[in-house]
Amino acid sequence: MLDFPAFADHVGDGLRIDIAGLREDASLVDDLGLDSFNMVNLIVSIEELGVHLPDDVVVGLETFGDVYRAYTERANRSAGFTRDDEA
Predict the structure, then answer these.
(1) Would you identify the CATH topology of the domain 4-81?
(2) What is the pTM of this model?
(3) What span, in angstroms and rounded, lies between the C-alpha atoms of 32 and 20?
(4) Exposure letters 57-67 (e unless 16+ CB within 10 A, then b)
(5) 22: which residues sit within 8 A by CB, 6+ positions away?
(6) What is the pLDDT of residues 22-63, one digit of tens each?
(7) Which are the contacts of 51, defined by CB distance < 8 A and separation ≥ 6?
(8) Segment (H or E) for 20
(9) DSSP code, position 27
């Protein structure tokens, strides 16, 4: 699983956007200007990391921090970890 800076770097490369804007509080639409095509590319770049985000998760993503949290939760699940294991 990637830490936040490495995740931002990977996603920034996939979307061809400046990683300086990929802050946890950055709005996907308002700050990063992602449209539906970019959102598909975002999901593809996450799937390249071996993590699938289902549609019901994707529709609730509003910030880049939301995206990273969804990625880490799914990555931990697939690795067999739970939130209790992280504490």
Answers:
(1) 1.10.1200
(2) 0.86
(3) 11
(4) bbeebebbebb
(5) 8, 11, 12, 32, 64
(6) 999 999 999 999 999 999 999 999 999 999 999 999 999 999
(7) 71, 74, 75, 78
(8) none
(9) B
